[in-house]
Design a protein that fits this description.
The complex is a heterotrimer. By secondary structure, chain A is mainly beta. Chain A has 2 domains: 53 residues, no CATH class; 83 residues. Chain A is built from 1 helix and 11 strands; from the N terminus they run H-E-E-E-E-E-E-E-E-E-E-E. Chain A has a 5-stranded antiparallel beta sheet with strand order 9-8-5-10-11, with no helix packed on it. In chain A, strands 1-4 form a two-stranded antiparallel ribbon. The longest helix of chain A is centred in the N-terminal third of the chain and has 14 residues. Chain B is α/β, with parallel strands linked by helices. In chain C, a hairpin with a 5-residue loop joins strand 10 and strand 11. Classes of the chains: A mainly beta, B alpha/beta, C alpha/beta. Chains in contact: A-B, A-C, B-C. Chains A and B meet through strand 5, strand 6, strand 8 and strand 9 of A and helix 5, helix 6 and strand 5 of B.
């Protein structure tokens, strides 16, 4: 009778701590969100497109983008959304999150396309959500895009 | 000063969900041995070893160091590359560059991933800039769900077509001894009854997480003929990266931006005199992370016109016996050790060119094959293989 | 090699303990922008622009999977070719050279970035050790290096004073380097009196945490000559792996470096390094490493590096100055350090090294190291003019 091999597994959970800098460009987004509840980004001088996230180079034109800051509206239109069914592990925060909030691609008025959550959780009602507006955190801001809780459907 | 480069040895592990019986270096060693045996070479014949692996998936920083001996890299030049999903193909490309440059004559290229170690989705979620996308990424699955939605809306493809692609992949996998998922799926209806993972992607629509490794031995023209009677020539390779679309990662929701696949395919075809891809190329091993993506990839690579990918599936053109077989090995839907997958695509295409693919050898005679890789924010690597240059 | 590969422009940031003001992409652009302005090259798909990029960064240090996405815009990778090498920056240059010699690319941009201030060095380095045996012992590169230093000193009688001389020399040399992070006047007594971190390595035997980036442009010979009047040629290059498990090799030796150096010298036609090389830039993360690596590079016999540094040959003004830039000890991030060494070698050969210039330098050696106790070494020989 052959014996079943015993496999020894080494379990290893180790948190790794990081102190990420936002830098100059993303730092400005954080600052405007925290201090003024505004969304800003910079514009490429060559193609005129808004860069998201803001950075010193327009990756498409491959030129220095400079600091032409533009304020964007926090209202927009939903292009597409999806919602999670399976609770995923979020490595940046070190916790599992079965995110109930659907994630959507939203075109901001006079702005660019951003990803963010929608307030509406009912899958039946989601297809009707078209125009949305950001709902900002009243306190404890300072997390960049995380300062917006989600986008709420508005009648327009 | 460029040498021609051929693939002279191919080796893979039997890809599985979990490999508790081996540690990572031992698993890689299986593929390396298989490749050396296939090429009838010894470790000392290898002059450089280039590895491709996403180290964050296993939680080992510098895995190529851990397996220096098992990967026959001991006292040998080499390095590791990692570019996300396209890693395995980037490794092959660097091997190709090394041999073509004359810096070495025989190189070993390895792609591997042992995904039962660590949490892959977490690692993929960590691709987003930590200070930007925190909490707003859903891993790769969410992105493919959005791509599927866009494709359904724009092309008129139905869930039945996606299910047909899944069935084709499983049929191929059941004929491929190395493939991971061999489900024995019988019908489209069976697939349509399975549950959704992230709507509209079902559990079956998406590639698995596998443990496996794939190794290729590359040799310069002067040595290739002495090593094997059936060298598979690497005619060309191209890598195209791209910034994420303004809206969407794998599918451009606005429909206005160029895809890296199109840019890569156009350049590759132009450089190699390919004017009618499905006539000038005999088969393709493409990197399709989901069955929906496979249909839109047919369009991006110009195997068919825009929004007609699902028609190729309906007409069964891409089956093993079809006019233009795609992924007879079962593709990524059946086997996906992320670091190895692009290497496996190239290995499988090479097996087809050599006529050594056994039960999943395609009916059409394969003189030219193309293998692709996909990764990052829709990056592409394409490889063109030929029986003779 | 029929056509040579030349380095046509280099740039580096001033190394700094904490660049909290810059995101990785911004840091990379700080070094890429001057290169583009200096050479007048743009990113073009055909013609005389940059064909592709090779980046070098470490996912574990950046805390980001596919860390090259941070620099994608800055290196012009959109709808273009780019690859990422994981080892130290010198290997990215080797990779770029292969791309050019393969005939498939003409002009390649190479950039390496690292922000050590963002991560926890011990934790990242501990992850480099195999998870089955060595990781559990809690090693990081410092404690493993301490073992190597102890073994090396025991086998060959190298003294702590000789190791300290390296730190004194390099930090002193750094005073002439405007990019150096911590140029300081220290003495052997300062080093031997500094805090003991892991016997025998003391605080001043180690390098500070450092952030920075380095970039360069490589081109094939014909194009290189058009882009700059002072192209520096890569005459010889190689790299090499050693075994991983610390118990499998004699830590007092560095045979992987010997192998890499031998291949690089053979390519460059060098038979007597001490005589034929005019300046050497070596990666010495811990002071004893400069001694050990000099032996591996063949500047002296095994175990004789202590005598070599005592003799003054490697000081500024000596026969073969080592690390006129101040080396890693005066502040250089891991992963960028090897590329910095090449950049410094290029400056020396162009005669642009300012106060740290070694007069009349014609042949330079640059070295990079990755992994625990120097598991992976890269060696590059550079020169100006022709040399066969």
């Amino acid at each position: 009778m052959t014996q079943k091999p015993e496999y020894i597994h080494i379990k290893y959970t180790k948190p790794r701590y990081y102190r990420w800098s936002t830098g100059k460009y993303m730092g400005k987004v954080y600052k405007e969100a925290r201090d003024n509840k505004k969304l800003v980004t910079n514009r490429c001088p060559k193609c005129g497109e808004l860069l998201w996230h803001p950075e010193p180079v327009c990756g498409r034109c491959k030129v220095y983008a400079g600091e032409d800051w533009v304020e964007m509206s926090d209202k927009g239109t939903v292009l597409q959304y999806t919602y999670l069914v399976v609770p995923m592990w979020n490595p940046h925060m070190g916790e599992r999150w079965a995110n109930p909030y659907p994630l959507a691609s939203i075109k901001l008025d006079n702005g660019c396309y951003i990803y963010h959550f929608l307030e509406e959780q009912d899958p039946e009602k989601l297809p009707k959500v078209k125009r949305v507006q950001a709902v900002w955190k009243e306190e404890g801001r300072g997390q960049g895009l995380g300062d917006i809780l989600y986008f709420r459907a508005i009648e327009e | 000063m460029a040498n021609r480069v051929a693939i002279v040895g191919i080796g893979q592990t039997y890809h599985k969900n979990k490999r508790p019986d081996v540690n990572m270096p031992e698993m890689v060693n299986e593929a390396v041995r298989a490749a050396l045996v296939d090429a009838q070479l010894r470790p000392k014949d290898i002059e450089a070893v280039i590895t491709g692996n996403m180290e964050t998936f296993e939680g080992v920083y510098l895995p190529d160091h851990w397996m220096a001996v098992e990967a026959v890299a001991f006292r040998t030049p080499g390095f590791k590359v990692s570019t996300g999903g396209t890693t395995g193909a980037s490794a092959v490309e660097e091997g190709f560059n090394f041999v073509a440059s004359g810096l070495c004559d025989v190189a070993l290229v390895i792609g591997f991933e042992k995904q039962d170690t660590g949490d892959t989705t977490a690692a993929i979620t960590a691709c987003s800039t930590p200070v930007w996308g925190k909490g707003m990424a859903t891993g790769a699955i969410g992105e493919f769900a959005k791509q599927a939605l866009t494709y359904m809306e724009k092309s008129g493809a139905k869930e039945e077509h996606a299910a047909m692609v899944r069935l084709k992949a499983d049929r191929g996998a059941c004929r491929n001894p190395y493939a991971h998922l061999k489900l024995g799926l019988k019908s489209v209806e069976e697939i349509l009854q399975s549950g959704y993972l992230v709507w509209p992607i079902r559990l079956l629509d998406f590639c698995p997480q596998s443990c496996g490794a794939c190794a290729l031995v590359l040799a310069s023209e002067g040595r290739a003929g002495k090593i094997t009677k059936k060298p598979v020539w690497m005619a060309d390779m191209i890598t195209i990266h791209q910034l994420p679309f303004r809206a969407g990662i794998f599918g451009d929701i606005t429909g206005t931006e160029p895809y890296s696949q199109e840019v890569a395919a156009e350049k590759l075809y132009e450089r190699n005199g390919i004017t009618n891809p499905i006539r000038d190329i005999d088969m393709a091993e493409i990197y399709e992370p989901s069955n929906w993506e496979e249909m839109s990839l047919y369009e991006h690579f110009h195997f068919c016109e825009k929004n007609q990918g699902w028609k190729m599936v309906e007409k069964r053109m891409t089956e093993i016996e079809g006019e233009f077989p795609v992924n007879p090995s079962g593709g990524v839907l059946a086997t996906n050790p992320i670091g190895a997958t692009p290497t496996i695509r190239i290995a499988e295409a090479a097996l087809q060119v050599r006529g050594d693919a056994g039960e999943h050898q395609v009916t059409r005679d394969v003189k030219t094959a193309v293998a692709t890789a996909l990764g990052g924010s829709n990056w592409t690597v394409m490889t063109l293989l030929k029986r003779s240059l | 090699m029929a056509e040579r590969v030349g380095i046509v422009a280099i740039a580096q940031t001033k190394y700094h303990p904490n660049r909290a003001d810059a995101f990785e992409g911004e840091l990379a652009y700080e070094v890429i922008r001057p290169l583009l302005e200096e050479t007048g090259l743009g990113f073009s798909d055909e013609g005389n622009g940059i064909d592709c990029a090779v980046t070098c960064s470490q996912d574990f240090w950046d805390g980001r999977t596919i860390s090259n996405t941070s620099v994608m815009s800055a290196v012009g990778a959109h709808l273009s070719d780019e690859d990422k090498v994981n080892e130290d920056g010198i290997n990215a240059i080797y990779c770029a050279m292969a791309r050019i010699l393969s005939g498939r690319h003409d002009i390649v941009l190479v950039v390496s970035h690292m922000k050590e201030s963002q991560a926890d060095k011990s934790m990242v380095e501990n992850a480099a050790l195999d998870p089955i045996f060595m990781r559990q012992l809690g090693f990081d590169f410092l404690t493993a290096a301490a073992m190597q230093a102890r073994r090396y000193m025991y086998k060959y009688g190298i003294t702590p004073e000789q190791c300290a001389k390296v730190a004194v020399k390099n930090r002193g040399n750094a005073k002439n380097n405007p990019f150096a992070q911590e140029p300081t006047d220290i003495t052997i007594e300062d080093v031997l009196g500094s805090k003991l971190l892991a016997s025998p390595i003391r605080f001043l035997d180690t390098k500070p945490i450092s952030d920075g980036a380095c970039a360069m442009i490589l081109a094939r010979e014909k194009k290189a000559k058009k882009i700059t009047a002072k192209p520096i040629w890569i005459l010889g290059v190689s790299n090499c792996y050693e075994t991983h498990y610390l118990g499998e090799r004699d830590l007092a030796e560095c045979d992987a470096l010997v192998s890499a150096a031998r291949k690089a010298y053979s390519m460059a036609g060098i038979s007597n390094p001490l005589k034929e090389i005019n300046v050497a830039e070596i990666c010495e993360e811990y002071s004893y490493q400069e001694l050990l690596w000099m032996e591996g590079l063949g500047f002296c016999g095994r175990g004789e590096a202590g005598r070599l540094i005592d003799s003054g040959v490697t000081q500024m003004g000596g026969q073969l100055p080592v690390n006129p830039s101040g080396g890693m000890l005066s502040g250089n991030p891991n992963g960028v350090a090897g590329m910095t060494r090449v950049a410094e070698a290029v400056l020396q050969l162009r005669g642009e090294a300012g106060d740290r210039q070694v007069p009349g330098a014609k042949i330079a050696l640059a070295h990079g190291v990755t992994g625990v106790c120097g598991q992976h070494h890269g060696v590059m020989i550079l020169g100006k003019g022709s040399r066969r």
